[in-house]
Design goal:
Layout lengths: L2 E2 L2 H17 L6 E6 L4 H16 L3 E6 L6 H13 L5 E4 L9 H7 L11 H8 L9 H12 L8 E5 L6 H10 L3 E5 L6 H5 L4 E4 L17 E4 L3 E2 L5 E2 L4 H4 L5 E2 L6 H20 L3
The structure holds nicotinamide-adenine-dinucleotide.
Length: about 280
Amino acid sequence: MVQILDGKITATKILEGLKQKTSTLSKKPYLAVILANDDDSSKIYVNSKEKTSNSIGFKSCVYRFDKNITQGELIKLIHELNQNPDINGVLVQLPLYSHLDENQILNLIDPKKDVDGFNPINIGKLNSNDNPYAVCCTPKGIVNLLRAYNIELAGKHAVVVGRSNIVGKPLCSLLTNEDATVTLAHSKTKNLKAITKTADILISATGTTNLITSDMVKKGAVVVDVGIVRMPNGKIKGDVDFEKVKNIASFITPVPGGVGPMTIASLMENTFELYLKQNGI
Ligand code: NAD
């Protein structure tokens, strides 16, 4: 019988723990978010980050910009936030307007305030298993969700489908650090099914609906669906053919209600951990 990896319940527990700890602090963790794009999904994600921060007693502020924002203005803001001792975490919602240089901006965030873990220093520390100041939120959320259900990673074959810098690649590093044997597949991978069939843990992060069908999954595998695709009817779907794959998997994440809530919970955990480090706690 398949077990659902419930990201909503697990994330709620994490957030309640953070809220309780925050209530005892006189100075509160403070998250700054920059939104410099016109994308509807990004606006929803940023609103949800702000709402969650406030619901657990953190302070937050969102800097919203129209398309007239220049690279120079954004650089100036990042420097100000880096130097502001009240701000613990700085997050730049991606993507940025196309005229802005994303990499230059991410590189400028102080690694000690890089709450998303995308600064090259933190990516390098993650790759070297050398205590990054913060670990990218979606990969961290996935590993925390697997841990919450006591799913062993050491020695398991984990197949990650999707090689983005924000999910697939850092997830491979994190799983490797957890002693899993990791294979990374992507759009140019040949015979994907032959590879996914060997996975003890199969994680798909592509944004292609029904990419993972039941014939691609080993009996008893753990299946994690990172994909978020908004359908014309407004519903959200993932990469996995949930209804069929749930008959083969031992554990599976729903979409929505799986990885999404864990990503937000990890962002709050990162903000809290950066706060503690910056305050020498
Ligand atoms: P991306 O959109 O930057 O890239 C997609 C990746 O999938 C690429 O590496 C590509 O090689 C691979 N891919 C595409 N089609 C494929 C195919 N047919 N076979 C094999 N590989 C294929 O990736 P992203 O930004 O990591 O986003 C991936 C999905 O995850 C999107 O749906 C996104 O909305 C979602 N996402 C969800 C969360 C969350 O918290 N749940 C967080 C981040 C991203």
